[in-house]
Design brief:
2 copies of one chain form a homodimer. Chain A is built from 15 helices and 8 strands. By secondary structure, chain A is α/β, with parallel strands linked by helices. The first copy, chain A, has 2 domains: about 170 residues, Rossmann fold (3-Layer(aba) Sandwich); about 200 residues, Dehydroquinate synthase-like - alpha domain (Dehydroquinate synthase-like, alpha domain). Chain A has a 6-stranded parallel beta sheet with strand order 1-8-5-4-2-3, with helices on one face. In chain A, strands 6-7 form a two-stranded antiparallel sheet. Strand 1 of chain A pairs antiparallel with strand 1 of chain B.
């Protein structure tokens, strides 16, 4: 086990109706001027927007609004949010939504105290040193951004989608009512399931030396996500399944499942290129196509780990580790297909012709391997072969 | 899943040599005057005391000392600590040790801001509203107090040993170097193993309705503790096993394994009576005697849960759930015996004659059942039968 620092300080208010407590929570911390960040129509459609506005107005709490945050959130919205915060003396950013909304709020929180372009944080040109406090009302179980140190933004001018990680962006509090996810479509729910699995999956398959605790927690989270994810898709108003998914989303990406390990996220890195290349590709859909393909090209580098994954997540019984590993890959691919997720490039409207450009984006024009610290670093040529195998 | 609030804000500095960073950490927070709380000779024997004193003195950081904290820590030491903090204008309490030292520090931290008797918190007469910040250097993997909201103190005058739970006592930071536990004896290590198992065990066996996530995490932690615990006892200087135990201790009792569940701790309640009755009984030793006995009398109230425990923790294969549950109980009892822990009252020097007094202490003179919200509330008569079965 390697040395590490870890903190996950977010206070969770979990359960039915908890969003009604927003005013009390905001007052308890003493905040007076909010920036209310949200996406499109979904929080209006479920009545959440009206309820929050009414409660904040009744309590006389000032708030400015920043809306229209899209998936693969844009750096332009970050710049706009920073301006509002400065003009309106905002003291709390309230993100109401899923990962894109929360990540936009995180970038604004850091950008507020920085004179340069906030995308510098994402380009790793500079580390944030201070951030406005951030509260979340979660409406989508997927990114885990409500507890995580991660902030992924897309620069529309350069088409670069990139994340940075810093404890400074971990939210102060998160209100999580699973009922707020009842209206999430089957497809979006499926994307969330894949994303949640991927966060512990990439940690589990990062190079480890004697990390049994982190690995066991990762497998427990993946197994539960496989179970609860299917239930959410079969019955979108299954409260307990939605609650499980919400918890799993948070704990799959807050760092718990990689304590004491070096973390490599090669599949995330490749997927960011996919959804930057075509913003219509949902992050979870891109991951769903890439994960089994990555497994096929990587499993021989750590067969016992793949075999353990197959046994613990899919209860696979087999004659030898190689067979077990292969059955595990097939089971995961089948599961993604079963919950309505794509497992080929064709299903996300990509073809052979797109591969050269995609691979250039993934590898920075062939100058970088993917996952230099992962169990199987991939060269440009290997990625081309991999993508051609899932046309 | 029931509604819940949860926060575990402690910043962890984990790994080899991390105690050398104490001065930097203290300075980074801006603390100037410490109360250094510790137990007996063990931190002196391993050279930790001298190292810390030298580093603090070199940095010109003031510290007062409170030493001689014993297992089943006494309320008198709490009172003494509160006085020192007030006289010396202490701004950080530094607990260097295991659960008793940390719990004493927690009680002092709250007592500092309270005019009455700090034991009032433990008697649940009053809730703490403010506490001095608390830092920990952990030297024993057992109580999980380094992350938990729990504080157990013994009142020497009344012989009442009781705990309270409040987020306000969760430490600000915890420095965890597994090497500092190399010198912990096999017996003390075993006591820690049982205590760590018990924290997730009692959560797992608390009444649940659809708490698959918490239950899966609990079983993962128990299974890993069974594995790593044995390795620590077989080879006390196995770094990775000691590191696993330290992580497991922290996450078995910070609340992660009971998220969304009502929590009942009936075995802890009974054990507190045992070690209050005879302070020579280590908490883990008392638990080791009581846990399998509690299982025997309770398993019929939730056979499938006991069966799942047996299968996942001990890989038991069997013909029916009843058989599986029974084999699980036997396996845990055998495991405790194998790691040198007592499994009968005789082994902790208690006999039939002690039972009436013990049971009166456990049930407040027969006025309370044990575990009213657990899967099997126990009356005075049932506890008498249970204790007679493990003479």
């Amino acid at each position: 086990m390697i040395n590490f620092d870890f903190v996950s300080p977010t206070k969770i208010y979990f359960g039915k109706g908890r969003e009604d407590e927003l005013v009390g929570i905001v007052k308890q911390y003493g905040f007076k001027r909010l920036l209310f960040v949200y996406g499109g129509g979904s929080i209006k459609k479920i009545g959440l927007y009206d309820k929050l506005v009414k409660n904040l107005e009744s309590a006389g709490i000032f708030f400015a609004e920043l809306s229209g945050i899209r998936p693969n959130p844009s750096s332009e919205k970050v710049d706009e949010g920073v301006k509002i915060c400065r003009n309106e003396n905002i003291d709390l950013i309230l993100a109401v939504g899923g990962g894109s909304v929360i990540d936009t709020a995180k970038a604004i929180a850091c950008g507020f105290y920085y004179d340069g372009d906030p995308f510098d944080f994402n380009l790793h040109k500079v580390k944030p040193t201070k951030a406005l406090p951030l509260g979340v009302i979660l409406t989508l179980s997927a990114s885990g951004s409500e507890l995580s140190d991660s902030c992924v933004i897309m620069n529309d001018k350069t088409l670069v989608k990139q994340g940075f990680n810093d404890d400074i962006v971990r939210p102060l509090f998160a209100i999580m009512n699973p009922e707020l996810t009842y209206s999430v479509s089957k497809y979006q729910t499926g994307c969330g399931v894949v994303d949640i699995i991927s966060h512990s999956f990439e940690r589990y398959f990062s190079k480890s030396e004697n990390n049994d605790v982190a690995d066991s927690l990762a497998l427990a989270i993946i197994k539960e996500t496989v179970r609860a994810g299917k239930l959410c898709i079969d019955n979108p108003m299954d409260y307990d399944a939605r609650a499980d998914m919400m918890l799993l989303g948070s704990y799959s990406h807050n760092g718990l499942t990689s304590l004491g390990k070096a973390k490599a996220m090669p599949i995330h890195k490749m997927e960011h290129a996919l959804s930057a290349y075509d913003v219509n590709i949902a992050h979870g859909a891109g991951l769903s196509v890439l994960i089994p393909a990555w497994m096929e090209v990587s499993y021989k580098n750590d067969i016992s780990k793949f075999s353990r994954f197959a046994k613990e997540v899919f209860n696979i019984e087999c004659n030898n580790e190689d067979e077990c590993a292969k059955l595990g890959i097939q089971s995961l691919r089948n599961y993604f297909h079963e919950i309505g997720m794509p497992i080929s490039l064709g299903e996300i409207n990509l073809s052979k012709n797109d591969i050269p450009h995609l691979v250039d984006m993934m590898t920075d024009d062939g100058t970088h391997v993917i996952g230099p610290t992962s169990i199987k670093p991939l060269t440009k040529e290997e990625i081309i072969r991999m993508l051609n195998s899932i046309l």
